[in-house]
């Protein structure tokens, strides 16, 4: 009840800026916010490091004619001003103070999670929707997300085998996704168990060596990140150490296409859920 009252208050507070979402010219320095806005039917006009987001997600998120305004810590403020934004979302309070004269600002970030991962993802969607008077749309997209996750959960027959989600940093180290990660939220919602139970960072990852990765049990699923596709895959395939390590693994290895941002929001969570379910039900491209 308190949450709904707070959301209602926020809607009233920002109503003067949100008479119609189609008239909003929104700028954001956060990819999780950008894809959430798109899901709510509002395409930002400008996003930091947009090219990098497209490389990661394969243009899966419709971002229309949004422009790239440079690096997240140092966006091109002159370019932002030229587009006369009506609202600016970010997660850098110092930067937002400098640009607050351009338009109303909101210092919002999904990470680190304040509740369990899935609940945090849903609440983040509502938090953004509340500031733009889009709560009805948030209700719709989150309900659809819950329905989709229920369907995917039913498709997975083997829920007993733990999964181990990894992303290579280079040919000797990998990030493993555990508690506090977006991917953990999906794993939980699908009724699966994460094989990785070690401490993680604020975004839910642990840095491990490839020998530690190979020794950890469960079904190993490797995210084919842009860096992996560009250089790391070839190095691993030519690495005698890696070949020996994976030959000693008892668990299966599968490669996951990366058409989602692992530190994203609900849209990325749903695309990862699709990818993971396909890998676990169709066999994926495992070994």
UniProtKB/TrEMBL annotation:
It is found in: Cell envelope. Its main location: other. It holds the Pfam family Peripla_BP_2. Residues 25-284 form the Fe/B12 periplasmic-binding domain. SUPFAM superfamilies: Helical backbone' metal receptor. GO terms for biological process: iron coordination entity transport. InterPro entries: ABC_transptr_periplasmic_BD, Bact_iron-sidero_bind. Residues 1-19 form the signal peptide. One of its GO terms (cellular component) is outer membrane-bounded periplasmic space. The keyword Transport applies. Keywords: Ion transport, Iron, Iron transport, Signal, Transport. Belongs to the bacterial solute-binding protein 8 family. This is ABC transporter substrate-binding protein. It comes from Vreelandella titanicae.
